[in-house]
Design goal:
With 113 residues, the chain is mainly beta. Helices cover 0% and strands 50% of the residues. The radius of gyration is 13 Å and the shape is globular.
């Protein structure tokens, strides 16, 4: 079955950096379109970044452009989200999403001084 292992979240201070990882199994990862979403408390889930199956094409929400970088390693069946210059408003549960069908379990990122 489809499984995800998300890691790299936690409590950080404003200005810090994090790299989220989402290791996938149970489907052909190398052919999968991958996305990262986030959901802040009391808000709707928001798409933040997408990456094509080969990694050649990426897209970002305007709110994160310049600070977030999505990447993937198809040999490791893993998609990453590098987050720099973290802000309190980045506090959310971050989810990986495969082929617009499968969801990871989510990982908490909290930005607070």
């Amino acid at each position: 079955q489809v499984q995800f292992v998300e890691s790299g979240g936690g409590l950080v201070q404003p200005g810090d950096s994090l790299r989220l990882s989402c290791a996938a199994s149970g489907f052909t990862f190398s052919g999968a379109f991958m996305e990262w979403y986030r959901q802040a408390p009391g808000k709707e889930r928001e798409l933040v970044a997408t990456i094509s199956s080969t990694g050649s094409s990426t897209n970002y929400a305007d709110s994160v452009k310049g600070r977030f970088t999505i990447s993937r390693d198809n040999a490791k069946n893993t998609v990453y989200l590098q987050i720099n210059s973290l802000k309190p408003e980045d506090t959310a549960v971050y989810y990986c999403h495969a082929n617009r069908v499968f969801w990871g379990q989510g990982i908490q990122v909290t930005v607070s001084s």
